[in-house]
Design brief:
- The complex is a heterodimer.
- By secondary structure, chain A is mostly beta strands.
- Helices cover about 0% and strands about 50% of the residues of chain A.
- In chain A, the strands form two sheets. In chain A, strands 2, 4, 5, 6, 9, 10 and 11 form a seven-stranded mixed beta sheet that branches. Chain A has a four-stranded antiparallel beta sheet with strand order 1-3-8-7, with no helix packed on it.
- Chain A starts with a strand and ends with a strand.
- Chain B has no helices and nine strands.
- Chain B is globular, with a radius of gyration of 13 Å.
- Chain B starts with 8 loop residues before the first strand and ends with a strand.
- Classes of the chains: A mainly beta, B mainly beta.
Chain lengths: ~120, ~110
C-alpha cells in the first residue's frame, strides 16, 4: 500500500497526558498537511510543511501543539497536556506540489482518532 | 478562500443520478472548484476538480456555469457504497498556502 499512513489509528488518553501521532506521506510528496476533524464538521487545517519547512500554522494550533517533519519525509504531531476539547480525528494529507500547476491533489490518510478522558 | 454553501443532507435510491449543488458567490478569478468524498472513519478522497464548463472522470461529472457562482457534482447511477459526505471547496490555482477549507459538506444517503 503506497497511500498515506497514520499511526496509531486510535488513541485514548487521560487529560493532562502528552500524545504523539505519526504520519507517513506518499513517497516523494513534498507537502504534508495536518487537519483536525470533529464530529459532524469538515476537516480544519492545522499546519503544513513543504519538505522539512513548516510554512503555515493555523490559529487553532495552540502552544500545546507542535509538529515536525525533520527529514522531509514522515511527520509527527504532538499534543502536550491534552484537554477534553482536543478529542477529534487528526488527519494527515500529502501532495506533490509544483508552482504553477493547476492540480494539487491532497491524499488523505485514515486519521488518528483521539479520545481524551 | 471563497465560502461555499451546500445542502446539509440528501437522500437517494440505488440506480438514480444524484446532483449536489454548491454555491460560491464570491469565487475569485483564479479559484478552482474541487470536490472531496469522505466515508465514515476515513480521510477525504479527491473526486473531481474543474474551472469552468464541464469536467468528467470515471467517478463523476462537474458542471460549472459561465458565471462560476455555483457548481453541480453529478453522480450517475449511485449505489449504496456512494453513501458518504461530499465536500465542495474552492481555492486558488496556485495557492501558495495549499490548505483546503472544508465546509460542513453534504451527507448523501443512498437507500436500496
Amino acid at each position: 500500500d503506497t497511500g498515506v499512513s497514520q499511526d496509531p489509528r486510535h488513541k485514548i488518553t487521560k487529560r493532562g497526558q502528552n500524545v504523539t501521532f505519526r504520519c507517513d506521506p506518499i513517497s516523494e510528496h513534498n507537502r504534508l498537511y495536518w487537519y483536525r476533524q470533529t464530529l459532524g464538521q469538515g476537516p480544519e487545517f492545522l499546519t503544513y510543511f513543504q519538505n522539512e519547512a513548516q510554512l503555515e500554522k493555523s490559529r487553532l494550533l495552540s502552544d500545546r501543539f507542535s509538529a515536525e517533519r525533520p527529514k522531509g519525509s514522515f511527520s509527527t504531531l504532538e499534543i502536550q497536556r491534552t484537554e477534553q476539547g482536543d478529542s477529534a480525528m487528526y488527519l494527515c494529507a500529502s501532495s506533490s506540489w509544483t508552482s504553477g500547476r493547476a492540480l494539487d491533489t491532497q491524499y488523505f490518510g485514515p486519521g488518528t482518532r483521539l479520545t481524551v478522558l | 478562500l471563497a465560502k461555499t454553501t451546500q445542502p446539509i443532507s440528501m437522500d437517494s435510491y440505488e440506480g438514480q443520478e444524484v446532483n449536489i449543488t454548491c454555491s460560491h458567490n464570491n469565487i475569485a478569478t483564479n479559484d478552482y472548484i474541487t470536490w472531496y468524498q469522505q466515508f465514515p472513519s476515513q480521510g477525504p478522497r479527491f473526486i473531481i476538480q474543474g474551472y469552468k464548463t464541464k469536467v468528467t472522470n470515471e467517478v463523476a461529472s462537474l458542471f460549472i456555469p459561465a458565471d462560476r457562482k455555483s457548481s453541480t457534482l453529478s453522480l450517475p447511477r449511485v449505489s449504496l457504497s456512494d453513501t458518504a459526505v461530499y465536500y465542495c471547496l474552492v481555492g486558488a490555482r496556485d495557492n501558495q498556502g495549499g490548505k483546503l477549507i472544508f465546509g460542513q459538506g453534504t451527507e448523501l444517503s443512498v437507500k436500496p
